[in-house]
UniProtKB/TrEMBL annotation, chain A:
SUPFAM superfamilies: FAD/NAD(P)-binding domain. This is FAD-dependent oxidoreductase. It holds the Pfam family Fer2_BFD. It comes from Teichococcus aerophilus. The lineage of its organism: Bacteria, Pseudomonadati, Pseudomonadota, Alphaproteobacteria, Acetobacterales. Residues 378-429 form the BFD-like [2Fe-2S]-binding domain. It comes from the Bacteria. The keyword Oxidoreductase applies. Gene3D superfamilies: BFD-like [2Fe-2S]-binding domain, FAD/NAD(P)-binding domain.
TrEMBL record, chain B:
It comes from the Bacteria. This is (2Fe-2S)-binding protein. The keyword Oxidoreductase applies. It comes from Teichococcus aerophilus. Gene3D superfamilies: 2Fe-2S iron-sulphur cluster binding domain, sarcosine oxidase, alpha subunit, N-terminal domain.
Length: 462, 100
């Protein structure tokens, strides 16, 4: 029995664990990775001195993980690395886990989902070709293995991560040849009011300055930038060979790194039946939570990017807030103490979210990213189902991704719809002339990750 | 195709990707080893037999499914390398194994 089970050891999970343990709660942190940090600070204990990763990763990321390690030393935290949550009984608070030593279960009084974000799928023609990866994938290879793409690398899409990656690759001696930026003409002008409102630019000035520095550095390192690109296609026989775009654009490439921002990883929160809302600004599903991250389910809270994209600093704030609320609900912290301790975290959260409305509008994915126009484009990578097939299913009466799954197997492959769910909903919504919110979100089922029959059989009876 | 930068992190763990032995840094995943080995594909899809390599590297896309130490359909990006690990490509859909 643990007071608080935290799923995910990224910034939100780590901050929550540190806060909860300091309040005397027994905490269990479950994480699929072998070391703490989440995707953003992945492998930071080994890689923080890599000059290509200097900056937030090497300094703030390493510091956060050190604080977590110190909190483990101080007692009260059971950190289970390389462990996957594959089922959660929300009535009894029973977590089914698979770790390196097999399957087992854990009972928790409260569960905090800190499962973070995933990159938004970028379904362009040819995106399944070998050597087409996400920008995040290349960054993970750099953090984890010190590896960089060899040959001619092209980045395509938009968002702050592309510029950060370009700078990191340049510092690692592998400057990308080209960035094909998909931000449409006029997007900046349309986004400006959102930055001016509430003094977003002023309060987010440090973030803006960092962005400008990254952009200047990658250009200085020799990366060419082509703006307002539409109609991206990856082409080649059995592997990526060239990239083309509207207006006759074409370039040879050995590696293509795609990125159109990140979206909350809602696989587990949806599987648990929590209510979700379609966020019209961030264009993604997010679980309904209150100001403490609490969901309508009395057992469950969600913190960090999994509850809406805010970045790693905002995630540490929402993680700490959820921990304070957990302590209060478990009777270890009076309400007034919870509220007063929350003040600095709320202050940090407001500051970190100040620039978000501007960024969300500036880097909003084009309609063709959400629902690819070309019928031959693969939407579901697992079952190799195209946008045309999804449109045909919509014409036959499929009202949303849960029905399309029965028609086409979209969501029945090994990824369980993690990649295609949002795209299938957007394609159906477009075909039927309804809002994406009405098409709905896929409802995944446990096991959240595949387990073997042997692992299932190894579970203790009872 | 990815290449290693030997200076920041030495490649100390020997693994096998297909039949080729290579060394990768401690803490790398099997999927990173696949990218560093320069394999043209880690699997062919069950539906159309099209070649795939890792795409997301963070456990989302399942395109890096591989046979690791004899166990098929493992997410190579979620498996940390160990000395002597054998990472083998998967080909298409699995057939039933008939024992004589």
């Amino acid at each position: 029995m643990t007071d608080l089970a935290i799923i995910g050891a990224g910034p939100a999970g780590l901050a929550a664990a540190i806060e909860a343990a300091s309040l005397g709660l027994s905490v269990t942190v479950i994480d699929e990775q072998p070391a703490p940090g989440g995707q953003i600070f992945r492998n930071v204990e080994r890689a923080s001195s890599d000059p290509a990763l200097a900056g937030e990763y090497g300094s703030d990321g390493a510091a956060l993980v050190r604080r977590f390690r110190a909190a483990i030393q101080a007692g009260g935290i059971d950190y289970r690395a390389s462990t996957t949550l594959w089922h959660l009984d929300t009535v009894g608070g029973v977590l089914s886990l698979r770790g390196e030593s097999g399957t087992g279960s854990l009972v928790a009084q409260r569960v905090l989902l800190a499962t973070g974000a995933q990159e938004r799928p970028v379904p362009i023609p040819g995106w399944t070709l070998p050597n087409v990866l996400t920008a995040g994938a290349a960054q993970i290879l750099l953090k984890q293995a010190g590896a960089v793409p060899r040959g001619r690398t092209v980045l395509a899409g938009q968002g702050p991560l592309l510029w950060l990656l370009a700078d990191q690759l340049a510092k690692a001696g592998a400057t990308p040849a080209l960035l094909l930026e998909t931000t449409p003409r006029g997007a900046l002008r349309q986004a400006l009011p959102a930055g001016l409102a509430g003094a977003g630019f002023w309060r987010g000035r440090a973030m803006l300055a960092k962005g400008a520095t990254l952009m200047a550095a990658s250009r200085r390192a020799g990366m060419r930038v082509i703006s307002h690109v539409t109609g991206l296609r990856a082409e080649g026989e059995g592997r990526l060979q060239r990239i083309t775009w509207d207006g006759g654009g074409s370039t040879e490439a050995d590696t293509l790194l795609l990125h159109e921002g990140v979206i909350p990883s809602t696989h587990v929160s949806r599987a648990l039946g929590l209510p979700h809302q379609w966020d019209e600004t961030q264009l993604c599903w997010r679980p309904e939570v209150d100001a403490w991250g609490a969901t309508p389910n009395p057992l469950l809270a969600v913190a960090g990017d999994g509850a809406g994209i805010g970045g790693w600093q905002a995630a540490t704030a929402t993680g700490a807030l959820a921990a304070l609320d957990a302590a209060c609900r478990l009777g270890r912290l009076p309400e007034h103490a919870r509220d007063s301790r929350a003040v600095p975290h709320r202050h940090l959260l407001r500051r970190m979210l100040a620039l978000r409305p501007f960024l969300d509008r500036l880097y909003a994915p084009a309609p063709g990213v959400l629902a690819p126009a070309d019928d031959d484009t693969i939407v579901c990578r697992c079952e190799e189902v195209t946008a045309g097939q999804v449109r045909a299913a919509a014409a036959l009466g499929a009202t949303g991704p849960n029905q399309a799954k029965a028609y086409l197997r979209t969501g029945m492959g090994p990824c369980q719809g993690r990649m295609c769910g949002t795209t299938v909903a957007a394609v159906i919504a477009q075909a039927r002339g309804i809002p994406i919110a009405e098409a709905g979100a896929l409802r995944p089922r446990a096991p959240f990750k595949p387990i073997t029959v042997g692992e299932l059989a190894d579970l203790p009876a009872g | 195709m990815f290449a290693q930068r030997p200076d920041p992190r030495p490649a100390t763990v020997e693994v096998f990707v297909g039949d080729a032995a290579l060394r990768v840094p401690e803490g790398s995943t099997a999927a990173a080893a696949v990218m560093l080995a320069g394999l043209p594909a880690i699997r062919e899809t069950p539906v159309n037999g099209s070649p795939r390599l890792p795409y997301c590297m963070m456990g989302i896309c399942f395109d890096c499914l591989a046979e690791i130490d004899g166990v098929a359909n493992r997410q190579a990006c979620m498996v940390t390398v160990r000395p002597g690990m054998r990472i083998a490509p998967q080909h298409g859909a699995r057939a039933a194994r008939m024992s004589a």
